[in-house]
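hiii, so i know i said id send this last week but things got crazy w the move. better late than never?? heres the sequnce for the chain we talked about at the cafe, plus the structure i predicted for it. fair warning i was half asleep when i ran it
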Amino acid sequence: MSCDPDIQSIYNEHFRNLVTINEEERTAAATSSASGSATADITKAHAEIYNPSVQFTNDDIWIFGYGSLMWKIDFPCIDWQRGYICGYQRRFYQHSIDHRGVHVKPGRVVTLVPATPNDRVYGVAYRVAASERDSVIKHLDFREKNGYERCTVTFHVFDPENRNNEESTKKKSFDIVIYIATPENESWAGDGPNSQIENIAEQIFTSAGPSGRNREYLFNLVKSMQHLFPGVEDEHLLELEMAVRQRIAKDEERLLEMALKKELKDVLGGKGKDLKLNDDDECMTWQKNKIDHLIKFCHKTGWREYFLAKELYGIQILSLWNDDDRRKS
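okay and structure toks below
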């Protein structure tokens, strides 16, 4: 893409380092999950849960986390267990318009789909004290309002030494509350082309929302599985992670450079300004303020996804030239 020398020099000085993926990230993007992405500290949240002063009772409830709850616990709990439920598969078949995407550009999050009795979904069980159960359920009902329904299934505690021994796992089982997005909800995305890995990966590649970047949701989920369940593979997660990282490595820098140079071209061309053409000082000040604003914008969470979505689809998931953030709507 040819451009005005001023555009190239401004891009090189202020934006190239922001766009460029370093070698560690590039290697991670080209292969699979590595430390280069901004993933969460999976161990910290679980290490802070156990409270020996709290008495367990039969009225406590257990909540199953198989998505972001595997690393991001936002309710009080008094114990946790690694384990799995049977008869389901974890799939990125739910649009997210309130967490990892927005209405104009939904992201993708996981739900559970019925499968064979031998299929397992691995995740984390969190014990909620009886005194907190009503408030926690109310909180989770609101959190999962975008198409999820609550039900109860059997949870099996994960035993790395005897994970294929059914008799051993049956001795360590209990009821647990789960939230599932069904095909009847308006945000369902598990049919036809929507269910294909390449289309899910494309959506994740270009989406962000109030809870953060969609790709980090995926990468944190993969990292959680690797940390909590070594040796257990979720083929859907791994295939999707590979597709997203390859898309990042192949196209992200090029697309971001094209998008940013278009913004700079508009700024240098005076698009949107109401100034006299012969007022050079005021014009230069206006341009400098716009460029400074653009630099500041490129430090916001989701800025990369903003320019990717705009370049590829003409969709704006954030408000670039105003203070309001469209993700809050």
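btw The chain is about 40% helix and 20% strand. thought thatd interest u
miss u guys!!
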